[in-house]
Amino acid sequence: MTASPVIVGVGAAYFAICAAIAIWAARRTRTAGDFFVAGRGIGIWTLSIAAMASTLSGFAFVGGPGLVYARGIGAVYIVLTAGITGSLTAWVLAGRLRRLAELRGIYTVAEAAGARYRSPAVRRLAAVAILVATVGYTATNLLALGLIVDAIFGIGRMPALWLGALVVVGYSVAGGMLAGVYTDLFQGALMAIASTAVFVAVLASGGGVAGISRDILASDPGWFGPWGHFTPLAALSFFFVFGLGTLGQPHVLHKFFMLRDPRRLQWYPLLMTGSLVITLLLFVGVGMAVKARVAAGDLAPLGHPDEATPTFLLRYTPALLAGVVFSGVAAAIMSTVNAFLNLAAASITRDLRIRPMEDARELRIGRLATLGVALLAVLLASRSEALVALLGVFGWGLFASTLVPALAFGLIWPGATRAGALASIATGLGLTLVLASLVWFRIASLPAGVSAAGIAIVASLLVFFAVSWLTRARAAEELDSDVRLVMEG
Amino acid sequence: MTSGIARVAWTGVLAGILAQASAMGLALAGLPEAPLTNWLAVGGITATMAGVLVLGALRHGRLSCGGGVAAGALVCALLVGFSAALLLPPETAAGPLWLGLPRRAAIILLGVGLLPVFVLPACYALDVRVRARDDERP
């Protein structure tokens, strides 16, 4: 691919700013607390924008608009919960996790689950689930990063993969979460600005929303039906899985441990939801605009839906904006990778360790663990695209089915028990891995509207309630009085 | 002690999850597009999400004004939005547009997607403010 000088210039500036933030943060990372929870010193703006940036991966900028173009309004259900999930997470988890972290000195999501049930076994099993999901998810995102870096600089996919990985792994190892949240802040702001600018271009390309609607309705009215070209159940299942599953995404929940002043959580839903909805304008807008331009005959039908965003940018926006959006896609991927690397390192260093260690050693091991996980993910990404794609399928469903019952429901239900938590995490882990693999290898198929993630979430919730009810006599003794106070709100 | 509101919310959550499981079961049994399947999914989503919101907002068994308004708004947005999508007739190319969008798409994108953005964060901010004021009272 021949790179445009403007796009190369914007991309180089973006990577230079990320590197500068990393150097600044690395100099301030002196303790394990700095490395894993940014010294519990970040403000509410940084927390909210960083949470938004790590929530969205490259899918929101490339795969998502492509899916909207190909399947219509039904694809929007993947992000339709964006207006709800920030507030839901705040009510159920934000305050409780932040207070628990302060009370017990907690650094990781698995540690919080362990504290809830006074159980090292719950903590370790949750950490294993997080580790399995993060390695796969990281490899998937690194592969996508290679594609984007190649699109910006035109250096070939494999060198691009290593260049992108070098930058994100560099700041993750050197500055840990301190570098992570401040690069996330920059990256999130870039994503929101790029998305807003693209949405203006979307409106201009089709004569406003009404013009776009008329063009699409004239050629494919089913696209604009309330479920698009999906069945109603398929679209509604997206809503259920991505709505409820948000309560189990550790890369977002982990950020609540970092907040300096818990009273500022008052503004979290407003800032998180506002920035998320603005950034998702590109997801919805580009898919609609490209569909309308194809319907009007201005564009030839796309060879592959993933071409929707690059095609729109190169055809309908100035090179400078295209450069900003390509950098925004890299930003979306890098912020997610950084969060996953830190989660995986924290799981290895703090949750799966044999015995406690002194702070300096924990910081050193944390950096080594980050490097180790990153190398494993890069090697996976560079060796087997098929394996990486399979691992990527696990990610969201694994987090949701293992952490929503045990952590989210566990923190609002004093009747939950250790046995219920262990059974639900094991159910979520086993079902997601088995079902997703069976579907992936075409050994089994699921009807429209039924996904491996959906089955795993529902099954792990039912197991959680059933086993907790059967072992309810132990519920009170497994709940420490200080944790009970935290749960009461 | 479980309060009355908590009991209702837990009933909603459990009923919602069972409804979602039933919808998946019907789809696996070869009825992925049956009206009952769709209505079970709509009911399951609404009951589960509103129930979880209420349980998260409860404090000492009591639901604040902010939490109550948010739960009510969420139930309205989801039930009205999804029901309208299931019940209203399909669009035609010459049909009227609502804010530039076909009617059912507008209900979904603006009613279900965008309306909660203006209500839920404000309710949460109000809820936190009221809690802080209550905590400061002797």
Structure description:
With 489 residues, chain A is an all-alpha fold. Helices cover 75% and strands 0% of the residues of chain A. Chain A has 20 helices and no strands. In chain A, helix 1 packs parallel to helix 15 (319-351), helix 4 (63-71) packs across helix 13 and helix 13 packs across helix 14 (308-316). The termini of chain A are far apart. Chain B is an all-alpha fold. In chain B, helix 2 (35-57) runs antiparallel to helix 3. The two termini of chain B are 24 Å apart. The chains are: A mainly alpha (489), B mainly alpha (138).
How do you describe this structure in short?
Chain A is mostly helical. Chain A has helices at residues 5-28, 32-37, 44-55, 63-71, 82-104, 109-117, 120-153, 157-206, 208-219, 232-245, 250-253, 268-279, 281-295, 308-316, 319-351, 359-383, 385-409, 418-440, 452-470, 481-487. The radius of gyration of chain A is 22 Å and the shape is globular.
